[in-house]
Amino acid sequence: MAAVLEAPLATSLFSSKPHNTNFPPKFHTFPSKPTLLTLRNTHPHSCVANASPPQDPDPASDPQPDPNRDRRRIVRVAWEKILRWSRSWRSKANTDILQRTNKVVVLGGGSFGTAMAAHVANRKAELEVNMLVRDPQVCLSINENHCNCKYFPDHRLPENVVATTDAKSALLGADYCLHAVPVQFSASFLESVAEYVDPGLPFISLSKGLELNTLRMMAQIIPQALRNPRQPFVALSGPSFALELMDNLPTAMVVASKDKKLANTVQQLLSSSHLRISTSSDVTGVEIAGALKNVLAIAAGIVEGMNLGNNSMAALVSQGCSEIRWLATKMGAKPTTITGLSGTGDIMLTCFVNLSRNRTVGVRLGSGEKLENILSSMSQVAEGVSTAGAVIALAQKYNVKMPVLTAVARIIDNELTPKKAVFELMSLPQVEEV
Q1: Do 284 and 333 contact (CB within 8 A), yes or no?
Q2: Helix (H/G/I), strand (E/B), else coil: 217
Q3: Tens of pLDDT along the chain (434 residues)?
Q4: What one-character-per-residue DSSP string does 48-100 give?
């Protein structure tokens, strides 16, 4: 044992002098002199110089970190932050807008106007919702059977939804106006009822498109037709089918206004457990995206009707999205609007889902039907048909090349067949994406 203690390495190992820093730090805590316990832990067939360092604890007693557990914790914390932010936002929101609202008028008895009338009426049982319609049969159906016999015969409307053909009684005392008249007929209709419109009545436009001859959007049409440049205006847009709104399925939309306070007010009026409303100040971006997506949906339908496959569908819609962004930004819109709900969101819904009227027109065109036969068989307006020519006029005005949307306009004008349009689009120069 003396020989063991006199070994040179043993002396240095248990010395109180500074150790070589290459040793692990835990060796520094050893006592400066050997103890009986130290000797007992020495291998019987070796000297202290060859002794192994102390072993790590049993892995079973010190479990390793669980990556899945850590990931779940991170996700849980992130979700809890979102919920706290949501609760904080709701607590600060002005929730008395609905309480102060007594009457809402809806101009137009189409599918989307009906769906929004039902949605608003369900927000408050005491709220009076008046629908101004031109079809006496629809008016009678709403008032007596609580359904729109033309568009939603199987959906019961709230009892506080009433219909009338009298503009004066519909608009009298209204707090908000939902405008759901097709774009091409809006100016003449509004001019006919302008005398009954209060100059401070906020107009919430549900109509999407461009006026064919003037290239005006609803933000210009409404105040000019009412002869009131200060008429409060909000555009409502986003991926939304009227049928799904009637079925109370989750939906998200955007209200856009230059007046931030008005946008927030309308947001509070319309938001519900199944309708999420965001706000924006980019009226141009929201309206242009809402108009041009209808034209792109016709193109997508043509690809489907011609059975050209998924590759061409993806390429065409991507190109169309770029064209919409090019024109919109030239007109002063924000690129983020075009990639948001009222842009990409609405484009995806309209281009890829069979409920889209504009897509249906395209499918039938691609299958070889004539446009006049398609339109005569439809009970609702496909805004993209009339908007296509206006889009190309805007593109020329702002010097933007829009090959896909231009091809749609040429097909609608019967100057190009779908097959020829596809051939020419595929022959375009291969350029760098912008």
Answers
A1: yes
A2: coil
A3: 444 444 443 334 334 444 444 444 444 444 444 444 444 444 444 444 445 555 555 555 556 778 888 888 899 999 999 888 888 877 766 668 999 999 999 999 999 999 999 999 999 999 999 999 999 999 999 999 999 999 999 999 999 999 999 999 999 999 999 999 999 999 999 999 999 999 999 999 999 999 988 999 999 999 999 999 999 999 999 999 999 999 999 999 999 999 999 999 999 999 999 999 999 999 999 999 999 999 999 999 999 999 999 999 999 999 999 999 999 999 999 999 999 999 999 999 999 999 999 999 999 999 999 999 999 998 777 888 889 989 999 999 999 999 999 999 999 999 999 999 999 999 888 766 55
A4: GGGPPPPPPPPGGGSPPP-HHHHHHHHHHHHHHHHHHHHHHHHHHS-TTHHHH
Torsional sign, CA 39, 40, 46, 50: negative
In the chain, where the domains are located: 2-53, 102-281, 294-426
Residues, the chain: 434
Q: How far apart are CA 407 and CA 401, in angstroms?
A: 11
The phi-psi region of residue 195 (left if phi > 0; otherwise alpha if psi is between -120 and 50; otherwise beta) is: alpha
- Which amino acid is residue 170, in one-letter code? A
CATH H-level, domain 102-281: superfamily: NAD(P)-binding Rossmann-like Domain (3.40.50.720)
Provide the CATH number for the domain formed by 294-426 in this structure: 1.10.1040.10
Give yes or no for a contact between 114 and 148, defined as CB atoms under 8 angstroms apart: yes
Look up 293 and say whether it is catalytic: yes
Dist CA 331 CA 399 (whole Å): 11
E-assigned strand segments in 187-300: 203-205, 233-237, 251-256, 275-280
Count of beta carbons in the 10 Å neighbourhood of residue 251? 19
Q: Catalytic residue among 150, 261, 293, 334, which?
A: 293
